[in-house]
């Protein structure tokens, strides 16, 4: 098709949007709200993921040794720990240090331990995991393999509660997909109905076009451009509002329930393009559905 | 040019056309007449391809309409002009835009559209009214706009359904003069009318329909 025809289609679509601006404004407003909700959900989900990942990166582990362990077995345990990808031995806690730590942990209640100087606290290796990005650390697997070693009494790690959060996150993702799907359906319905209204308001014109020998595509393309414009403008507006809201939360850091301070990140450029593409695609598909129904009827 | 073979058209149990066999030559001027409900409009719609016959074959310039696809039907319509009793003009567009529409759908260049639109409006005596809107014109002028739109593509066939049905006798004469001039340039004309005055002393072929059948063919 020629540039001349496309110019004609564009002019026709723009003039129709301007002629029915109230309908289009209402529709674009509704699509913007839907895309905004979707974008906000993506933003929240992404930041929660980052948050959990950051905490996950601070994974620490205590490998408690049996009293009966000999020097050779201790060496073997140490060497096994050093072989674990990303693991670093933060320290070796002797019985004495363990008692001191316990007393420090009890604070004012430390008096409870008086007279129990021969308390048998186990010696342990304290491990931290660094640079977990890209490394899949499975604490359960490490725990079970270390516990099988000669001289190891028990392995405890700090992450059991994070696993529970990750479970909630997984549920959050599933709910997110469902809400996202519903929002997309809503956007589609809105576009279909707006274009349908635009088509019905111009049905006499379409009839005359067809009587003049206009091809189906000649009639359809301006409506598809209308749907695409509606989707694209709504997507852009939604992203703009998200940027503004994000800029308003200018501190960009929050301290949530005393947990480690985290940065609030904005959607990546890929996510923004995805949102724009999604709203554009929904606009075009909406246009297709409504014009298709009109032509079939 | 136009050949109808054993055309039947039914709407439910109601037979609108019953075994119509007609042949119209290139450049011919034909009137189709008969009382209301005789099937005049149905024949025109079948020739134009907006209604499909229940049975029978229609050939327009050698093209069988029952075997034509949608795209080719659109392309064929560009060679056929249609003038309606209710004009079918877009009231929110100027006279110029209404006439130019027939060329816009073909993807013609703007300069050509401008030139041909001015020529068509001049041919129907509406030069200087380009910027007016349909509702600012009289009925006769609106019908002239519709004729200008129908002839702008220099069609091989012009169909008119009761083109003077809403017009007074003086304007009817003017419109008929216009149709004759279009026919003189080689366009085949098929006009459906129940106006007997229009058929007097025309010297043209007249097909009379009644209850969906051809009951008479004569020269007026």
Please explain how this structure is put together.
- The complex is a heterodimer of chains A (297) and B (220).
- In chain A, strand 5 and strand 6 form a beta hairpin.
- In chain A, the strands form two sheets. A four-stranded antiparallel sheet of chain A has the order 2-3-1-4. In chain A, strands 5-6 form a two-stranded antiparallel ribbon.
- Chain A is an alpha+beta fold.
- The longest helix of chain A has 42 residues.
- Chain A folds into two domains: 186 residues, no CATH class; 99 residues, Alpha-Beta Plaits (2-Layer Sandwich).
- Chain A is rod-shaped, with a radius of gyration of 31 Å.
- Chain B has 220 residues and is of the alpha/beta class.
- Chain B has a single domain, classed as 3-Layer(aba) Sandwich (Rossmann fold), CATH 3.40.50.300.
- Chain B is 34% helix and 28% strand.
- The two termini of chain B are 21 Å apart.
- The mean pLDDT of chain B is 90.
- Classes of the chains: A alpha+beta (297), B alpha/beta (220).
- Chains A and B meet through helix 1 and helix 7 of A and helix 2 and helix 3 of B.
What is this structure's SSE topology?
The complex is a heterodimer of chains A (about 300) and B (about 220).
Chain A: H1 3-19, H2 21-57, E1 60-65, H3 71-83, E2 87-93, H4 95-106, E3 124-129, H5 139-147, E4 152-157, H6 160-201, H7 203-211, H8 216-248, E5 253-254, E6 262-263, H9 269-296
Antiparallel strand pairs in A: 1-3, 1-4, 2-3, 5-6
Chain B: E1 2-11, E2 14-24, E3 29-33, H1 40-48, E4 55-60, E5 63-64, H2 70-77, E6 80-83, H3 95-104, H4 110-123, H5 139-151, E7 157-161, H6 169-184, E8 188-193, H7 196-199, E9 205-210, E10 213-219
Parallel strand pairs in B: 3-8, 3-9, 6-7, 7-8
Antiparallel strand pairs in B: 1-2, 1-4, 4-5, 9-10
Helix pairs in contact in B: 3-4, 3-5, 4-5, 5-6
List descriptors.
heterodimer, A: 297 residues, alpha+beta, Alpha-Beta Plaits, 2 domains, 4-stranded antiparallel beta sheet, two-stranded antiparallel ribbon, 9 helices, 67% helix, 10% strand, B: 220 residues, alpha/beta, Rossmann fold, 6-stranded mixed beta sheet, 7 helices, 34% helix
């Amino acid at each position: 098709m020629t540039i001349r025809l496309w110019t004609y289609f564009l002019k026709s679509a723009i003039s129709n949007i301007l002629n029915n601006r109230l309908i289009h404004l209402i529709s674009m407003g509704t699509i913007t709200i839907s895309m905004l909700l979707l974008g906000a959900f993506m933003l929240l989900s992404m930041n929660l993921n980052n948050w959990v990942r950051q905490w996950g990166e601070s994974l620490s582990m205590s490998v408690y040794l049996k009293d009966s362990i000999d020097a050779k077995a201790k060496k073997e345990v140490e060497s096994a720990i050093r072989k674990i990808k990303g693991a670093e031995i933060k320290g070796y806690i002797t019985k004495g240090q363990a008692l001191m730590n316990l007393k420090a942990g009890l604070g004012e209640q430390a008096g409870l331990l008086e007279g129990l100087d021969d308390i048998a606290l186990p010696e342990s290796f304290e491990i931290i995991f660094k640079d977990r990005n890209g490394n899949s650390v499975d604490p359960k697997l490490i725990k079970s393999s270390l516990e099988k070693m000669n001289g190891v009494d028990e392995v405890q790690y700090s992450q059991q509660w994070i696993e529970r959060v990750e479970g909630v996150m997984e549920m959050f993702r599933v709910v997110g997909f469902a809400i996202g799907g519903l929002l997309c359906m809503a956007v589609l319905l809105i576009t279909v109905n707006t274009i349908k209204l635009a088509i019905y308001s111009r049905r006499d014109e379409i009839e005359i076009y067809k009587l003049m020998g206009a091809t189906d595509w000649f009639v359809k393309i301006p409506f598809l451009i209308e749907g695409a414009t509606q989707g694209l403008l709504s997507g852009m507006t939604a992203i703009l509002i998200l940027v503004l809201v994000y800029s308003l939360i200018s501190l960009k850091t929050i301290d949530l329930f005393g947990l480690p301070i985290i940065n609030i990140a904005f959607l990546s450029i890929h996510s923004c393009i995805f949102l724009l593409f999604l709203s554009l695609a929904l606009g075009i598909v909406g246009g297709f559905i409504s014009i298709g129904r009109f032509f079939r009827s | 040019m136009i050949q109808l073979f054993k055309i039947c058209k039914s709407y439910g149990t109601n037979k609108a056309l019953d075994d119509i066999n007609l042949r119209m030559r290139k450049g011919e001027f034909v009137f189709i007449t008969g009382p209301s409900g005789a099937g005049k409009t149905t024949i025109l719609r079948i020739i134009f391809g907006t209604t499909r016959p229940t049975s029978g074959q229609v050939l327009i310039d050698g093209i069988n309409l029952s075997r034509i696809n949608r795209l080719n039907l659109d392309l064929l319509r560009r060679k056929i002009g249609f003038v309606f009793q209710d004009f079918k003009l877009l009231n929110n567009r100027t006279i110029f835009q209404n006439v130019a529409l027939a060329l816009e759908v073909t993807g013609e260049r703007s300069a050509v559209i401008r030139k041909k639109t001015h020529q068509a409006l001049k041919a129907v005596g509406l030069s200087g009214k380009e910027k007016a809107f349909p509702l600012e014109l009289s009925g006769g002028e609106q019908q002239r706009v519709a004729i200008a739109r129908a002839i702008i593509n220099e069609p091989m066939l012009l169909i008119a359904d009761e083109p003077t049905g809403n017009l007074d006798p003086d304007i009817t004469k003017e419109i008929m003069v216009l149709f004759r001039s279009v026919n003189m340039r080689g366009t085949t004309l098929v006009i459906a009318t129940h106006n007997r005055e229009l058929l007097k002393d025309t010297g043209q072929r007249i097909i009379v329909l009644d209850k969906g059948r051809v009951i008479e063919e004569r020269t007026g």
